[in-house]
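retry 2 of 3: previous attempt timed out while embedding 4-O-methyl-beta-D-glucopyranuronic acid. Reduced batch size to 1 and resubmitted. Inputs unchanged:
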Amino acid sequence: MKKPRLILACLLVCGAVSAWAEDGYRLWLRYDRIDGQSNRNEYRRPTQALILATPTGEESAIIKSARSEVARGLDKMLGRKQTKVHVVTHAPDPALGEDGYALENVTVDGEAAVRVRANSDAGVLYGVFEVLRRVQMRESLEELDVVSVPKIDRRLLNHWDDLNGFVERGYAGFSLWRWYELPEILDPRYTDYARAVASLGLNGTVVTSVNANALILTPDYLKKVAALADVFRAWGIRTYLTARYSAPIEIGGLETADPFDPAVQAWWDAKIDEIYEHIPDFGGFVVKANSEGQPGPHDYGRDHAVGANLLAEPLAKNGRDGIVMWRAFVYDFEDDTDRVKQAYNQFVPLDGKFADNVLVQIKNGPLDFMPREAFSPLFGATPQTKQMVELQITQEYLGASLELAYLGTMWEEVLQQDTFVQGEGSTIGTITDGTLHGHELSAIAGVANTGTDRNWTGHVMAQANWYAFGRLAWDHELGAREIAIEWAQLTFDANAKATDKIVNLLMSSRETVVNYSMPLGLHHIMERGHHYGPGPWVEGGRPDWTSPYYHQADTTGIGADRVASGSNAIEQYAPELQALWGNLETVPDELLLWFHHLPWDYEMRSGRTLWNELAFRYQQGVDEVRAMRETWTSLRGDIDAERWDHVRQRLAVQEAAAIEWRDACLLYFQQFSKRPLPDGVELPAHDLQHYIDVNRRYFPGHPGDN
Ligand code: GCW
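retry 2 succeeded.
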């Protein structure tokens, strides 16, 4: 009687163990044993030793990290006891910049070796991660001729994490930073976080939210930040904070935070000295000022440049290289100018007034991370001011972590978008990397999608967005598809056919979300507060937080009028784009209703009326999610059951969400269009009121009460 029980127990335990193993925790750093033959192709196991060549040849903390990753990765994959790692000195090579690296084949004592050469220890670490990536992808380490140099200096994650553990627009649990345990207790997860960040070549993290709490700047909290910074430093990651503009009042006991007040200046000066005592390589601040209720220099009649320079000066004192990333996400509901014009209006007159170590941090769109918007016209409009792009990795408007939306395609579109400010080729990528206007210092930010969920990002497929952001921060010219291929190979290690299917699924997913939520250039028609699901009917309160402000639907038609007949926001763009987007003959369908208010019977390129096209796009979005589900079903057995089922469940949710968007929006807009749904578009299951009454209480990531 005993034996079967034992076997049963073993089966249960073993089953549980393997289920736990595929919980997504390992991200793209899986390092599974390679058995000589991979799913994809024959693989010749590299036998080489590793030579780490730096200008100093020292065994620094970062080099130790590189060694530990080799042991954890290479040895495990190759089933080796210990790869030989030699650290040697090498003359600096200007071609590699600060963080770049070269991978070369060399012979040491008659033995084949791979040399990772760089000008900094961080560069060596990035090179080691590339070696590991290549081995994971079964790429040969022979005939190596790799030189890789990041185009952007400061490659940052921005965490919107509050001190109480809540993550604003976070859909993967709570904050990774356990402030109440710090500085004494160090969660091992901090190291795993740092490994993941460094593996992508990211080199900075802003650990607190832009909706800032001044407490983080108090001595007790600075000790906690310093403990985190110590962990991150060993992985080449610098720590940054957000600065609450009114901190001199809230924690400094002053009566004002006016940047012209000498006591305020002295306070920041001393505070920044204190920060550097705790964190000698402190990176600087991100500041959200005079936006959505945050305090700022306007409270004292001073402009953004004066505001930013107040912090910039002490950050550059004594040879420090701290920076200020001053956000351009500013708009004021008391100003009745079209919201999408306001940042440009506030910042363009300030060009040339910002200190050298200030960058203006601009969201890709002038509104707010919509599934698609025209790019922010502020890009390139202040040639003397350093500008950087802020992308949102967390899916605030693209289905949170319930829905699959690969954002690599969206960011490729953004980074390669031509602004024409200096003629053709003036892309947002070249503005962000500083080359267009000849700026030395450059930075890029992505709002993180990480949290305490075991798989880090809530939806396993959302790991691809963290990955894609990191890769694009390193090289904004990489293609979304090549990044998706890498990620899918590293993450699932499936056969070639299955990998192809996963990549295709990723590649079309963002457009699918656009189709079922905000097609044809519609924007900001989501539910209020938590921003999940449809809400074209949202009205009341400040107008720029309502939906009709943006869709402008009425019996004559639909769309935001941003040409001369309306807000004329289009005038903020280069003449080439004004001509392209202002003209109905040439404006792409994707931006049609972003710029134009058009009659319901307007004839589209497809030959359909605008109303029919709108209905058709919503239906198409639903059909595409159904196709995604079929594709996923067909992957059963090609990837592990745990993650297969995880995604399968979420795709079912996504189909229901797509149907809800379609039905809610079409019923709502039909009140104005007064036209029937065209053939081929499914009839809604409920009346409009049903959708209006949907109330998602306690949706994660929303700071207000639900
Ligand atoms: O998109 C909006 C979000 C806010 C966010 C703000 C910002 C951190 O709804 O939650 O606040 O943007 O970027 O400052």
